């Protein structure tokens, strides 16, 4: 019988430390009491009253919309940056570009938020845009911040790829953009999905940047929760957080299942092609 060693114990403690607060939050979302720290029995009333809280639901849909747009733009910019850094051997300013791409990873969010705020104010004074700070400025700030994470993920995937297939396609007359779209993109699809999910989660979770570059009528969910916590956590917040946790878990499991099936099918096709070549 295998012994329960020190490593397994540390793993168990780590999992409990990470997931126990989430479990407690989900349990208290079914609390019948208005006081979140006092258990008053089981009830689903706070899930029903969510739709009556227009301010909270508005911030939820606003955050989801910004996170969706951020994920798309961050994947596009991060993929281009990763491709330039990994596929172009030498060019003037490559080290500078690499440093600029990774700078948001180590830059404090307070500094980034303040600099973006000053930038938007200066642009408004010079060219009259943006007219006001809102969803557009939050989206730009989140894209600037999350593109670095996507670039790092995609760069690591591109460095692991065998470029022989790309070179063979170009030798057969395929143009570089066609090779990129039909060969490179499918091979780095898992990293693109992972980068998009990370950008979505980081945008949905961000408080500091949104606090600097938001304006009236553009309050996001983290800002709404943070302002409510100072006056006491409302039961609806536990309910909406539990729903978001459920949606994220289902989406993550679905993507894992789809990618696992695709990877299994790809390995099967490679095995069959090798078998065909060996027979021939």
Automatic annotation (TrEMBL):
PROSITE patterns: ABC_TM1. It is found in: Cell membrane. The keyword Transport applies. SUPFAM superfamilies: MetI-like. CDD domains: TM_PBP2. Residues 60-255 form the ABC transmembrane type-1 domain. The chain crosses the membrane at residues 7-30, 66-85, 97-123, 135-158, 179-202, 237-258. It comes from the Bacteria. Keywords: Cell membrane, Membrane, Transmembrane, Transmembrane helix, Transport. It is a multi-pass membrane protein. One of its GO terms (cellular component) is plasma membrane. InterPro entries: Bact_Polyamine_Transport, MetI-like, MetI-like_sf. The keyword Glycosyltransferase does not apply. Its main location: membrane. One of its GO terms (biological process) is transmembrane transport. Belongs to the binding-protein-dependent transport system permease family. CysTW subfamily. This is ABC transporter permease subunit. It comes from Vibrio algivorus. The lineage of its organism: Bacteria, Pseudomonadati, Pseudomonadota, Gammaproteobacteria, Vibrionales.
């Amino acid at each position: 019988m295998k012994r329960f060693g020190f490593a397994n114990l540390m793993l168990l403690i780590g999992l409990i430390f990470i997931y126990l607060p989430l479990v407690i939050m989900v349990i208290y979302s079914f609390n019948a009491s208005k006081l979140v720290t006092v258990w008053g029995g089981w009830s689903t009333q706070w899930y029903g009253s969510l739709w009556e809280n227009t301010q909270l639901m508005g911030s939820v849909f606003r955050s989801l919309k910004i996170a969706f747009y951020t994920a798309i733009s961050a994947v596009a910019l991060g993929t281009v940056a990763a491709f330039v850094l990994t596929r172009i051997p030498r060019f003037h300013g490559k080290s500078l570009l690499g440093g600029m791409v990774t700078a948001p990873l180590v830059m404090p969010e307070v500094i980034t938020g303040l600099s973006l705020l000053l930038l938007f104010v200066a642009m408004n004074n010079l060219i009259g845009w943006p007219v006001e700070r809102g969803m557009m400025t939050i989206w730009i700030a989140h894209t600037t911040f999350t593109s670095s994470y996507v670039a790092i993920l995609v760069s690591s995937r591109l460095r692991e790829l065998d470029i022989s297939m790309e070179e063979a396609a170009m030798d057969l007359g395929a143009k570089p953009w066609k090779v990129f779209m039909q060969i490179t993109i499918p091979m780095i699809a898992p990293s693109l999905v992972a980068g998009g999910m990370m950008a979505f989660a980081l945008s949905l979770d961000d408080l500091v940047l949104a606090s600097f570059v938001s304006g009236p009528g553009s309050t996001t969910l983290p800002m709404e929760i943070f302002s409510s916590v100072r006056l006491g956590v409302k039961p609806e917040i536990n309910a909406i957080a539990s729903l978001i946790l459920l949606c994220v878990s289902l989406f993550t499991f679905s993507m894992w299942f789809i990618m696992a099936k695709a990877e299994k099918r790809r390995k099967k096709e490679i095995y069959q092609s090798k078998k065909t070549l060996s027979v021939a």
